[in-house]
Amino acid sequence: MPLRDHFRSPLDDKHSWDELHGMWPAMIVRQLIEVLPEPYFAAPGVHLGSLYEVDVGTYGDRDPGGADFDAGGLALATHAPPKPTLSLEPELRHQDVYEVRIYESRRNRRVVAAIEIVSPSNKDRPEHRGAFVSKVAHLLKNDICVSIIDVVSTSYFNLYAESIDACNGVDPALEGEPTPVSAVTVRFRHENRKRMMDNWYYPLAIGRALPTLPIWLTETFAVSLDLEACYEETCRTLRIR
Fold first, then answer.
1. What is the tens place of the pLDDT at every residue in 166-203?
2. Where would a tag sit more exposed on the chain, N or C end, judged by fewer CB atoms within 10 A?
3. Confidence (pTM)
4. What's the rounded Cα separation, in Å, for the pair 56 and 23?
């Protein structure tokens, strides 16, 4: 079955889009389990209602020699800070994050690849789109391969196009009016002391099959993510027809 329109009638009369977004990361992980070699593994992440920033560093053990102030460690001198120069109720950015992270376990769970499933809140405001683009740039700068899957058909912004624009790059595939739904993998690599960006961009369309994306674990080794297969398994499990 091809890509359905999860954001318009008649499908969204029966199934909310977040059913797909909530289940799809788990199905992606299930597929990646079959192709990821040791020491790599994948894990889903769903974060609702707040802007979530991935920690691109490693998971280290707590310093066993550090002081435990809650258990009778060194006492700190009491400090009475001055009154704040400003107090206000901020308007924090609220975005839903649906993603899969691929880690290398032998390097203290270092992130090597990220698969981002775009939610409506990633595209609804200029500041939200800017935050998403900044997140992608942050991941890429840390040599993390990023894949963006966008099936939000009711917003006509293309986040890959905005990411390319932020890098002062030009993709001929985006000439004219880029499609609002798309899938892409982006990664940085080194060539003759230059940092190059490689892109695998696929415009999507309602009624057509989804592509297979390369997921780069290192500069020279990648695995394949069959989006069509894991998407169909998600729809089958949720009884979305």
1. 888 889 998 888 899 999 999 999 999 899 999 999 99
2. C
3. 0.83
4. 24
pLDDT at 74: 53
Retrieve residue 42's tokens.
């994948």
**Residue type present at position 36:** L
Quote the strand ranges of 96-152, DSSP E.
97-104, 110-117, 145-150
Structure tokens at 207: 């009624």
pLDDT of residue 84: 75
Query: Quick one: CA dihedral 158, 162, 167, 171, positive or negative?
Result: positive
Rounded to an integer, the average pLDDT of 87-116 is 82
Q: What gap in Å lies between CA 173 and CA 149, rounded to an integer?
A: 17
Contact between 183 and 214 (Cβ < 8 Å): no
Q: Residue 145, Cβ neighbours under 10 Å: how many?
A: 26
* Length reported for the chain: 241
